[in-house]
Amino acid sequence: MKFVNQLKWKQLVAVVAGVAIAGGVMAFTQDMSREAIAERIQPSMKVRVAGDEPQQQAAASGDRSGEQVYNQACAACHTGGVLGAPRKGVAEDWTERLPQGMAVLLEHSINGFNAMPPRGGCARCTDDEIEAAIEFMIADL
Predict the structure, then answer these.
(1) For residue 45, what are the β-bridge partners?
(2) How far is CA 109 from CA 7, 18, 87, 92, 128, in A?
(3) pLDDT band per the 50, 70, 90 thresholds, residue 58
(4) Which residues make beta-bridge pairs with 113?
(5) I need a surface site. Which of 42, 74, 78, 125 has the fewest CB within 10 A?
(6) pLDDT at 76 over 70
(7) Which pTM value belongs to this model?
(8) Three-class SS string for 58-98?
(9) With 0-12 CB in 10 A as exposed, 13-18 as middle and 19+ as buried, what is 116?
(10) CA angle 10, 12, 17 (to 5 degrees)
């Protein structure tokens, strides 16, 4: 039993030493200039408040077609009906939704509804692009 306890202790020391050495080698091989450090600690995302520049840039760059928006942001859920999403071109999926009118469909798409996130997860889509995507999905009905 004493041998087993000594073996565990030696293994623990070996692991700790290995991690310390590996960390030292990694720190030594990385560029430690101020610019490199600033680049490594940059935030991965930025918070955007409604009306900020990115939304304006998307609008200024020209509206995408409904088909483009659908293929980029909507198809993942609306092709297979994920979590009850109405499928493109499937009339029975839209029978309760279409009578509500485009204003309600657009409001649900922009603000989110049931399992659908706001803007369908397309934060850079303009209201007009979202409306065009809805029109694309119901065009064949």
Answers:
(1) none
(2) 62, 53, 14, 19, 11
(3) very low
(4) 116
(5) 42
(6) yes
(7) 0.56
(8) HHHCCCCCHHHHHHHHHHHHHCCCHHHCCCCCCHHHHCCCH
(9) buried
(10) 95
